[in-house]
Structures are given as structure tokens and as C-alpha cells.
Design brief:
By secondary structure, the chain is mostly helical. The protein has a domain at 22-67. Helices cover 52% and strands 0% of the residues. The chain is built from four helices and no strands. It has helices at 4-10, 24-39, 43-52, 54-68. Helix 3 (43-52) packs across helix 4. The termini are far apart.
Length: 92
């Protein structure tokens, strides 16, 4: 006997948002933040903030850079294959 849960998993997905579509709140919040940035001077404000509060600016970069960095298909990055730990006797 097949349960109703198993039956429902066999049905194709219909409706809903398409993959990658941001939430309405997320989109509106991003637009509001960008408008506020424009209101305080945009690039000039970010430049002065980077100088006066470097830790806050670096935290911002840490959130933005992973979304913008793209690899070069002609020169791909290679994964680290092996990490070796060596214990050195410092008593000599």
C-alpha cells in the first residue's frame, strides 16, 4: 500500500515562484538601502567610512565580494589536494 505522502512526492511541482526570484521584502530592503547610500554621498561616503571605520567596511566587503567574484574559465582555481601537519620539537 502506498502512503499519501509518497503519492504527493510523485506529482510534478506546479505554481510558486521561479528559482532565484528574490522575496518582495528582500528586494524592497535592498532598494531602500541603496537609496539611503545615494542620499549620503554614495562612493564618497563609502570611502570616508573605509578610512574612519575600516572594520565595518571590511565586514561589508566580506558580505559583498563572495557574490561578485567570478572565476576565469580559461584559468580555473585548483582545490587544495593535501594538507600536511608537521610537529616540530622546539626543545632542541
Amino acid at each position: 500500500m502506498v502512503s499519501k505522502v509518497e503519492e504527493s512526492r510523485k506529482r510534478p511541482k506546479t505554481g510558486g515562484r521561479t528559482a532565484g526570484t528574490p522575496n518582495k521584502v528582500t528586494r524592497e530592503l535592498k532598494e531602500t538601502i541603496l537609496a539611503a547610500l545615494d542620499g549620503v554621498g554614495g562612493v564618497d561616503y563609502l570611502t570616508s567610512t573605509a578610512k574612519s571605520h575600516p572594520a565595518a567596511f571590511m565586514a561589508l566587503l566580506g558580505k559583498v565580494l563572495p557574490m561578485t567574484v567570478a572565476g576565469d574559465p580559461e584559468n580555473p582555481l585548483h582545490a587544495i589536494v593535501r594538507i600536511e601537519r608537521v610537529i616540530v620539537n622546539a626543545t632542541n
